[in-house]
Design a protein that fits this description.
Length: about 375
Amino acid sequence: MLALVRSGEATSRAEIARRTSLARSTVGQQVNHLLTSGLVTEDEGGDTVRGRPPRVLRISPQAGVIAAADVDGTATHLAISDLTGKVLAREVTTIPVEAGPERALGDLTARIRALLDGHASDRPLRHVVVGLPAPITPDGCTVKAPITLRAATMSGWDGTPVATHLEQALSAPVTVDNDVNLMALGEAAHDAPGPLLFIKAGAGIGSGVVTAEGTVLRGADGAAGDINHLRIAHDSDVVCACGHTGCLGSVASYRAVLNDLDIPFPEDPLHGSRQLAELVASGDPTTLRRIRRAATHLGEAAALLIQFQNPRTLVLGGLLAQLNDDVLSGVRAAVYDRAAPLFTRKLTITTSTLGDQAGVLGGITLALDRTFDNDGLTRLLNDR
Ligand SMILES: [Zn+2]
């Protein structure tokens, strides 16, 4: 019943009875139970042709709050929302990811607590979702991986039980996910037609896949979509951190572009970004050529993935995609060149509409889904 009310599929007692084929009296009892629990409200609803307007059931904004964080070495985005998905507060902050999990998770806990205290101290915290730039195991640990599978800033995090740590610190259920998965989920939840493929080109290159049903593909080890080391540039002699040559991340990431232009990264990524933005704005030919080459490689990789997944939307995110329009047009050109027409006829290729908010908004979507899935509902109803 709560799922029907939440999705808006059935928002009155009569509709619920119709949809569930339960007796009106049974529905009445259950609805009264939900009203007493404070999870839903029942108010005068819209117009009707004759008689009393039907009373409309809605999830109560007072029933709880959720929190989401998209943690990144340069900027961490936080948001809290009520159980209807209405964002109550947002914040951009710096979390010292490179200082290791203890310090970083301590700071993250403090920032989330401060946001909750300031904007939702009267409501119970129902779920927290945290995105990290690394593959995450199904139980919320960073994987024990060689350096090549995660951002270099996370070198001290191998095997950290992040979800368990935060659950103890915040006294609420916590889901930890790969940051690009959350970005994909954010775009899919904000009107981008699915199935959806999100490719983030930043310090490295990662991708996230959301099915037509809205499910994220995570794989057996949480590493699905980790495409940084796909061999794309067969003529490249740039040696990747993994020891191979021609890896996608070593030729088409934002870091690779900076490296080739002798701009330091990641020692001072913001300074590097300013320097690169100035070169782009001044139309420096070497810079523009390098960016277009990165876009072509990115498009070649995208064409492979598109022919495997057959998405309706491809979204480009990360610092590289934000540089200039050449990136989007370069990716489009390579995809149309390499993928068969069947795959591109109805495909939309676009840059992220949510920009740097994609991850945290995807986090809110996931936190709401987890609050109202079977385990979440059991917790919600037993908590009263
Ligand atoms: Zn590699």
